[in-house]
Amino acid sequence: MKLTVECNAINERNTFSNGDVLTGQLIVEVSKKTTIKSLTIKAKGKASVAWTETHGEQQVTYWDEEKYFSQTESILPNENSNGSFTLSPGRHTFPFVVQLPSNDLPSSFKGESGKVKYHLLAQLSRSLRVPSKAKTEFAFVSRPDALLPVAMAPQYGVKDRNVTFFASGNISMNIFLEKTGYQQGEHLIVKGEIVNSSTRKIVPKYIIYQKQSFFAQGNRTVHTSNIVKEKDAALSSSTRQTVSKILTVPWGATPTILNCRILKVEYRLKVILDVSFTKNPEIKLPLVILPACDGAMAKALEACQPQKTNYVH
User: Fold this and answer.
1) Strand 187-196 with 170-177, pairing
2) Is residue 256 a contact partner of residue 297, using CB atoms and an 8 Å limit?
3) pLDDT digit string, tens, across residues 141-185
């Protein structure tokens, strides 16, 4: 006997969101006449974290999990008086329909010390036999409704520093973003001004980095990684430059996750002025990465677009 779970895609990215109806079919292949007691499909979602730390000579593992939903549907037709169903030899297809919860759930994610996972589990039971099982994951992307107020807020930062070691003068920058939230694949335009009033040259660098935070038993572990890293040409001494740097959010970037108790996925834009023999001034601005979307999700984003801002240096 062979049991397989197939899921029908509802968009080109093969993702599902809050309140979506998930459809598919269970494929049962048998080589001889077989009587089935039950055939079910279960949809589940949960997050889990785990990591190990060394304290002296002792290793301690911290872990936690958060369950979101677990719902089971019976998809076996009633044929026999006892509720069983008899299959003839060959391949049989049983369609199923699962309504996903409409509440706010975190997107699918796999990180350094934790994950958010959604899957379908099929189970076929027969008399005096171990149940047959089949499992498949599906990608869940949280609708960005709760993030929209934050995503549409502008961001601004200022930094200046005196250069004193084997040099003199001052370097400064002001950086502006028209909004905080950007979809996967969207261009992010960094605006502002850099002033080099020192006797050294400086190199502007632009980094988008991801911060993963995991929480368990009152402890936290953090992992950071750069997902975009670019730089501009060096600015010579006594130079003023208007900034209009275009960065692209990677398509593969995990959407921001702030709606999970045991893990977070956050992003920052970091602008650095690289100066020799001195501490580099830097500005960090928060970013929200939103999933690439269409339909109702896209209309919600469009309705919340900020008014055009005239930026003044």
Assistant:
1) antiparallel
2) no
3) 999 888 888 999 999 999 988 776 656 788 999 999 999 999 999
